Each structure stands twice: as C-alpha cells, then as structure tokens.
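Notes from the 1:1 (GR / supervisor)

We went over the backlog. Supervisor wanted to see one worked example end to end before approving the batch request, so GR pasted a single chain during the call. The sequence is below; no edits were made to it. Supervisor asked that the structure be written out right there so they could see what the output format looks like.
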Amino acid sequence: MNRDRSRRGGAPQLVRRTVRVAATAVLTAIVVGCGGNGPDRDTFSIRDSAGVTIVVNTGDPGSWTEWHISSAPELILGASDDDPENALYRVVGALRLSDGRVAVGNAGSFEVRYFAPDGRFLYAAGQEGAGPGEFSNIEWITLLSADSVVAYDSRQQRLTVLDPAGKYVRSMPIRATDEVLVPVVVGLFGDGSALIRNPHPPPEQTGVYRIDFRLYRYEAGVSSPHPLGVFAGDDRYFRLIEGALSVYGVPFARSYVLDVVDTIFYHGHNEHSELRAYSPTGRLLRLIRWDAPPVEVTDEAVRQFREAQLNRTQNPDLRRRWEQVLAGIPANRTMPKFGASYLLRGVAGLIHDEIGNLWVLQYAWRPGQATRWSVFDKRGVALATVTLSPRHEPLQVGDEFMLLRFRDSLDVETVRLHKISKGG
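Structure output shown during the call:
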C-alpha cells in the first residue's frame, strides 16, 4: 500500500500515473462490467438513494468469472543468495515502470532498489539515516508521474521523491499538529493532496475495544487539514496491569480497509460485506455490497488461530505468558466478511489495479494459505474472482500483470511478475 503527505504547508502537488489513465479506466470498467467477461445484468443492481449510488451484487462469488494468474513467473527478483545487492528483505512494495524496470521498496536495507526488465540489479537509492534521501523505516512506495517514485518513511514522518533514475529530488515532512497528533499517511489523491489517518487514543481499561480513527485531507497551501469524519477501526484486546497497557490481537477480529484511487477514497469494515466510496471532501458517493453469508467460527478454528499466534515466538517463556493471556481473550463467533487477519503480515485487504478496479480479499487468516480475491469495476459491479497460490501477496496489479511478493518456507523473499488471463 502507498502513502504520502506533508503537513503545515500542506500536501505536495504530485500527480499520480493513475490520473493519466482516468478516462480510459472509466470506459474500460463500464465495458467490462456489462460485457462477456463480467456478470450478467441480473446479478447486480444500481440505484440512487438521496444522491448516494447503491450497488448490490447478488449470487455466490464462486459463480463469478475466474481470472487466472500464470503458473510460472515471467520474472523473479531477489533469487540470488550469492549477491547481496540482489537479495531482498522486508519488501514493502514493487512498481513496474513504463520502460519495464522494477523499483522495489526494500525496507531491510533502507533502499529503493531498481532492477532491469530482465531482472538484473541496476542500482539502489537511499541508505539508513536521517539526511536527505535516507530512510529509517520505509513503509510503502508508489508511482508518481513520469516514473518518479515516492517512498513514505513512517518513522521520520516524511515523504521522499526519487526521479525516474532513482536520484533524490526532495523530501516532504508530515508534521503532527494539535489536531492530528499521530498522522499516518494513507494515500495520495490524483491532485496531490493527501489522505491522513489519526487513530483515537487507546482505552484505559482491560477488554476488547474497537479503535476508530479520524481521516483528514491535506492540501497544498492550506494551513489546517480538512476533517473528513470518524471511521470504524480494528478490534484489539487491551490488558491493563499496574498502569501498563499491553495490546493483543483478537481471534477473527473485525478490522478495516482503506485505499485511495485518484479522486475517491474507499473505506470498509468487515463486519459487513460493504465498501463505501467517498469524495476528497468526505461526501459519501457510493455503497458497494455483495453477498457473503455468515460463516461460523468453530472451537477448532479458534484453537488453530491461537496456536498460530503462539507460533510467532520461539521464546518458551514468552510463549507460556502469551498462552495464559490468549486463553482469556474472547473470539468472535462468525468470520469477518473480507480482509486479512493480522497473522498475515503485510497483506492488504483492499487494493486497486492501474485501471481503477478494486480487489477485495475474501477473508483469510491462515499463514501460508491460498487467497481468493473479488474484483469490482469502478462502479462497484463484480467482475471476477482471482486465486493466488499460497505465500503469494500482491504488490502491484496492472491490466495484464501482477507483481507478487513470495515468501518461501524459510521466509526468504522474492518479487515475481506473473501474467493475468481474463478469458474466464
């Protein structure tokens, strides 16, 4: 996922590549949504309610058209253990540039690494530090116009812009204010303004609580952020002992997704099978709904979930302490409608492709499991489902390709380019 902004002086005036394809994206979405590769007209309805468009997709997603990912990758990056420049660790994003090069956000080395179309390492931008062009914690990267790359450093709370050759251009700080104490960049709108998330403070008592957040939009030349409203957040278990607050995950917790696509931002909370589309001013534009019957959470599923939580540490003393705490955390009794559990590191529950289609992850919680994605066009009409093999996580989706992060059984990371077949 990608983000970026600047407070005080406002967000930078940056133009994303998606702006250049906006008109094409709209036309493509309409044609595909009503054409042979999309759903039949009687499987969805679109109506207006007080100025809000409501899109309802009916029927089992299993009956939708199936798009396919090529079984063999066209390109593999990071496969050489002998060359440290080619090795990848803590990959946070990968972007295919217009000339076929691939830029990889490699947080483990505090760099954006550039690879040739044939997979050869070319050069790297950045290093650990606080100076211009240096990074402390790259959280995501995204494309701007003309193959420029922006990298968001969440620890230094700033955005760094690199030109198409990977050269440092400028940095843009994201400063906290009295109103926005903990700014987190969600994404950039097409005009360069920024979407910022500011979480509510945690509770001061033990229990399961949903931590909501406020969203703001920063604009260049505007001294104060524009508030967009309060949005539903994640469930967490908080344990207060002698004034110290510890935070734990909840089995099958409800959680949220956020994404920014050109002039719209999307929010969804997986208590319901629904996404909401908003304008940059926070006006509700569209509700996107689909069928997702309730699925019971069995006692065995809860046991497996807790075991997966415990397997995240190899320290026997810490494992015993966790086991005692986890036994007292109540689990939800029905599965969330979509998204990823926190056990799936770095897997986003909502992404978009280069023509503006939305990819929603059908709920997944087991590490190493295959994942299924529901694809909707820009109107919110269901197009297809896509299955990704175990250990494959999408980083960028083009019209005919996907860049995926692959983790093997030893947790070694590679970035792989696969073709997308939309023939059904």
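Supervisor's comment: The helical segments are 17-20, 22-34, 299-310, 316-326.
Batch request approved.
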